[in-house]
Amino acid sequence: MINYKERYITLNSHFKQGMDCHLEETGINIRFFRFHSLSSDEKGGTMQHTDSNIIENFSFEYPVFTPSGKCRQEKAILLLHGLNERNWNKYLPWAEFLCLNTGKPVILFPIAFHINRAPVTWSNPRSLIGLLNFRKEKYTDDRTISYANVALSDRISQSPERFYLSGRQTWADLTVLFEEIKTGRHPLFREDTKIDIFAYSIGAFLSQVALMANQKGLFSDSRLFMFCGGSIFRSMFGISRSILDKPAFEKLQEYYIHIFGNEATPLWERDNAFNAFLQMITPERFRSEREKFFTCLKGKIKGIALSNDMVIPYHGVLEALGRKNAESTIQLLDFPFPYTHENPFPLTSKDTTSLNNAFTNVFSRAAEFLA
Asked: For the segment 142-162, what is each residue's pLDDT rounded down to a tens digit?
């Protein structure tokens, strides 16, 4: 049985962004690879601002957990994180467990403007104090405003289009990454490598869109395991001191439910990615097409939802996949200790046995499906 807290601390003491390392206890190597993203103007949308001056978003390194001893791999797992993440900390034990128990490399790929694809000032309290005070003065008595969510909240408030464009840029990046791997151009993988996906939170939403759009057929053989993810957009509740403040979330919902795709002047390229995203916004629109798609993928999708998850509620997963399909593919679990969507395995839990059991239970199921 894994000691989750101990492993978390050990991994975070070893992990340094951009620095390869070897984990003696498990025989796993962490290797970093450079990625160059396309410019925003090539992502099928027109914006007043392109965020193209944020150089971290366009040239960055991503880590891969890989079993030592093998030169070129023929299978991989892509791990996608949640919204407003600023580091890989909580995902390190996840990646190690999946790598160790499937024997496959696990690629931790950052969503656009997240993790190391964002300026460090976005997560530095000293740099954010002016913005935080401004937002608190503008929205008096709003306790959802915090240092952790103020940078993203302000960006979304200025332009809710950024949510779609960030996802679209990431989708395009993943298309490039998959193509690079499957053609044998990636130094770690053989030609025709099979890539499966472990996706958490908004990473699951992004994965659903990617599988639907299936650019160049690159996602045709991918299996998807969703953890705390899979909801239709309208039922997500992103108001959290770790994710978005209340004004930003309400603006995001208002824009995508009532405005996006209905603009007087066409704003977006109506390609497969746009259409897939649109199908995932509200349960009523495109219900039959969406549910038919997920029913066809029944054997390729599995997941776990948590009873006390307020951000990605189980009913939203039922709406996205269709009740019959969701009930047969997504398991609803609960843990006997306090947890949240943002922190499903809290290190502060005094019930360490239950914490270890919960982590092992979730990730054993994921590893079994993705092996």
From this structure: 999 999 999 999 999 999 999
Contact 212, 272 (CB under 8 A): yes
- Does some domain include residue 176? yes
Burial 208-246 (b: 16+ CB within 10 A, else e): bbbbbbbbeebbeebbbbbbbbbbbbbbbbbbbebbbbb
Is position 215 within any domain?
A: yes
Q: How many domains does the chain have?
A: 1
Let me know if residue 190 belongs to a domain.
Answer: yes
pLDDT of residue 167: 95
Find all residues with CB under 8 Å of 127, minimum gap 6, and list them: 121
Beta bridge partners of 268: 45
Which CATH number characterizes residue 318's domain?
A: 3.40.50.1820
Q: Which residue range(s) make up the domain with 57?
A: 4-119+167-236+269-370
Structure tokens belonging to residue 56: 């971290």
Work out the percent of the chain whose per-residue pLDDT is above 90.
92
What mean pLDDT, rounded, does the chain reach? 95
DSSP 8-state assignment for residue 268: B
Q: Count Cα atoms within 13 angstroms, Cβ side, for 135.
A: 26
From the list 7, 10, 9, 12, the residue with the least C-alpha distance to 88 is: 12
pLDDT value of position 71: 79
Burial of 20 (0-12, 13-18, 19+ CB in 10 A): exposed
User: What's the pLDDT at 21?
Assistant: 96
312-351 pLDDT, tens digit each: 999 999 999 999 999 999 999 999 999 999 999 999 999 9
Q: Report the DSSP beta bridge partners of residue 244.
A: 239
Residue with tokens 């916004």: 281
**Alpha carbons 64 and 125: distance in angstroms, whole number:** 29
Does 48 score more than 90 pLDDT?
no
Confidence of residue 49 (pLDDT cuts 50, 70, 90): low
Contact 51, 57 (CB under 8 A): yes
- For the chain, what is the radius of gyration of the CA atoms? 20
Burial 164-193 (b: 16+ CB within 10 A, else e): bbbbbbbbbbbbebbeebbeeebebbeeeb
Q: What whole-number distance in Å separates Cα of residue 297 and Cα of residue 175?
A: 20
